Amino acid sequence: MHIVLVEPEIPQNTGNIARTCAATGATLHLVHPLGFSIDEKHVRRAGLDYWSLVDLQEHQSFAELQALYPSASYFYATTKAQRCYTSVRYPPDAFLVFGKETKGLPEELLRKNLDRCIRIPMRDGLRSLNLGNSVAVVLYEALRQNGFASLLGQSAYFNH
Known about the structure:
This protein is of the alpha/beta class and 160 residues long.
């Protein structure tokens, strides 16, 4: 799985997401410009000692990322989508794309990909969930659909 953060702004969110990526084996793609330096102490503290376990890739633009992975399956998380994130079938190498905390993904990108836009249901009147929580919710659904490949062998608890 691939997690794509387009222009993230809050270092603690990115650090938490990096930790989730380390725990699941998902690749983390950061699309510039970033609202912080990935060397910033808040990012490092949130990711704790997991940074060495993160497959981190940086891209100067979303177009650059797409050029590197032209045949990938992209899914765009947005509060504006009609389709629930659980109603989609995610391939094992899906790219789950999330926008910046204050504005989400660019409208133009969403319009071009309406059939690939997904949302997490929530009560009316609320703007959105925290970015780190949103990534975890969608990523774990995609992993569940793929049988938690390579994650279950660590604990007998899951055999119940």
